[in-house]
DNA sequence: TTTACTGCAAAGCATTTGCAGGGCG
DNA sequence: CGCCCTGCAAATGCTTTGCAGTAAA
């Protein structure tokens, strides 16, 4: 199934184009299931399996990136965004972070490991303020 | 179910202690399913549901960290390790990286967001050398 | 015509949940 | 004695796969 990859990006299927267009217009990370629904809203209906297959191709092509959540759900977005996160282990809330100190490292790794790096993810885990307060007062979630 | 959290770490259940002991002795990241098998090998049998429930508690307590893979499987380890990864989008191979330039940022975020940060994950995605070669010669996987 | 893409439905898999029994304080 | 922990099995939810029809070159 990995026919479209970073070495064979001559053409994309119609489905891939639609999904890529959607991701670009949204400019945020979204799940495959939500992509399916969103396309339906835009009258660009597409089977769920096709959504997954297209995302896989775009991912391998290096234009789409993925962040997999703790519940097994994956969020897809275009790679141009450099958004990292601060995630609460208790309630799952996820705050975006603007800072990113790892670009230099990325370049070094590219050289050192001969890895063709498309993107990176950086995520911090802990307990958010409201969950801290909730627990301080004895309640939860 | 979140009774044991970072504010109520007075005691751990027997299951939690066993799992924590296992993780410490292994000193590497391992899946819940494999923890289940490994405990069985050590004649410390435990239901799979209990493995998950205990991991959840240890995670909330801040002594165990998680890294969720693209296939939805999660790898658990004790937090003392500062291991990050370089992962191939094609074959899934995951190389550990020693460098970590984000400790300063972690501390800043702790202050700025009043988040109680336990740990962070940093992962680079791309195509590994062998997959690059495989594709260059026209084959795959 | 030939090949690859697509949709649907079924299957796969890690994880979660319901519930009854058992252990510990 | 009571509450929490535990185990089993069923359920859940996201993702993948099989297969036949369809669109494109």
Short description:
Two copies of one chain form a homodimer. Chain A is α+β, with helices and mostly antiparallel strands and 141 residues long.
Explained architecture:
- The structure is a homodimer of 141-residue chains.
- Helix content of chain A is 40%, strand content 23%.
- Chain A has helices at residues 14-26, 32-41, 48-61, 103-113, 129-136; strands at residues 30-31, 64-68, 74-78, 84-88, 94-97, 116-127.
- Chain A has a 3-stranded antiparallel β-sheet. Chain A has a 3-stranded mixed β-sheet with strand order 5-4-6.
- In chain A, a hairpin with a 5-residue loop joins strand 2 (64-68) and strand 3.
- In chain A, helix 2 packs across helix 3.
- The longest helix of chain A has 14 residues, at 48-61.
- Mean pLDDT of chain A is 84; it is low at 1-8.
- At the A-B interface, strand 2, helix 4, strand 6 and helix 5 of A face strand 2, helix 4, strand 6 and helix 5 of B.
- Chain A binds a DNA duplex (25 and 25 nucleotides) through helix 3.
The largest sheet of chain A, given as strand count, sense and whether it forms a barrel, is: 3 strands, antiparallel
Q: What topology, given as strand order, has the largest sheet of chain A?
A: 1-3-2
Low-confidence stretches of chain A: 1-8
Kindly state the mean pLDDT of chain A as a whole number? 84
Provide the succession of SSEs of chain A: HEHHEEEEHEH
Number of strands of chain A: 6
Dominant shape of chain A: flat
The value of Rg of chain A in angstroms is 18 Å
- Alpha plus pi helix count of chain A: 5
End-to-end Cα distance of chain A: 42 Å
Strand coverage percent of chain A:
15-25%
Q: Largest interface, per-chain counts?
A: A-B, 52 and 52 residues
By secondary-structure content and strand pairing, the structural class of chain A works out as alpha+beta
Question: What quaternary form is this?
Answer: homodimer
Q: What level of helicity do the residues of chain A show?
A: 25-40%
């Amino acid at each position: 199934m990995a026919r479209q990859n970073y070495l064979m990006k001559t053409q994309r299927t119609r489905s891939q184009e639609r999904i890529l267009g959607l991701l670009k217009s949204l400019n945020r990370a979204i799940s495959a299931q939500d992509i399916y629904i969103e396309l339906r809203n835009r009258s660009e209906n597409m089977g769920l399996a096709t959504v997954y297959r297209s995302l896989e191709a775009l991912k391998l092509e290096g234009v789409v990136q993925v962040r997999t959540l703790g519940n097994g759900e994956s969020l897809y977005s275009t790679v141009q965004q450099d958004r990292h996160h601060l995630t609460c282990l208790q309630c799952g809330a996820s705050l975006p972070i603007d800072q990113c100190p790892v670009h230099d490292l990325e370049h070094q790794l590219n050289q050192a490991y001969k890895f063709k790096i498309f993107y990176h993810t950086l995520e911090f885990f802990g307990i958010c303020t409201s969950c801290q307060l909730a627990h301080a007062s004895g309640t939860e979630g």
